[in-house]
From TrEMBL:
Membrane topology: Peripheral membrane protein
Subcellular location, principal: membrane
InterPro entries: LITAF, LITAF_fam
Residues spanning the membrane: 93-113
Name used for this protein in its record: LITAF domain-containing protein
Residue ranges of the region described as Disordered: 1-50
Superkingdom of this protein's organism: Eukaryota
PANTHER family reported in the protein's UniProt record: FI16602P1-RELATED, LIPOPOLYSACCHARIDE-INDUCED TUMOR NECROSIS FACTOR-ALPHA FACTOR
Family statement: Belongs to the CDIP1/LITAF family.
Length: 145
């Protein structure tokens, strides 16, 4: 048992370091294939053409629905100042609809009618009105419906 464990390992590679350096040069000399060298820059020109196609896409109108429920940084279209819009909560159509539903259900389900005004106190039910802090004009409105 112990004799087999202490046997010297077999030589890993029959080649020395000098032979390895000769081998590393060998595939480089015979590497270039005639098919690859016949069309050197064709694929490069194709890549640049596809890149310019992506850039030439028509510009997308961003200013349509840019107003959300939070203040937005934009240019005022009235005074042309670069501002962050001032937001204020405004009761839109949604709290009136919820109030109407609660009022009708109050006849049948004994829901107290005082909760009908709750939607007007919840920010998530109110529209957001964006105004310019410089010229105080209305720039847009974020509607819940
Ligand atoms: Zn303005």
């Amino acid at each position: 048992m112990s004799d087999q464990q202490h046997e010297p390992p077999p030589p890993y590679s029959p080649y020395s370091a000098e032979d390895a350096s000769k081998f590393s040069n060998y595939p480089v000399k015979g590497a270039p294939a005639p098919e690859m060298s016949s069309q050197p820059s064709y694929t490069d020109s194709q890549n640049t053409q596809s890149a310019t196609r992506v850039i030439q896409l028509p510009p997308v109108a961003i200013a349509v629905s840019q107003f959300g429920q939070f203040p937005v940084e934009c240019d005022c279209r009235y005074c042309h100042a670069h501002i962050v819009t001032h937001t204020s909560k405004v009761a839109g159509a949604l709290p009136w609809i919820v109030m109407g539903i609660c009022f009708v259900l109050g006849f049948f389900l004994l829901i107290p009618w005082c909760i009908c005004c709750i939607p007007f106190c919840i920010d998530s039910c109110l529209d957001v009105l964006h105004t310019c802090p410089a010229c105080k004009r209305s720039l847009g409105r974020f509607s819940r419906i």
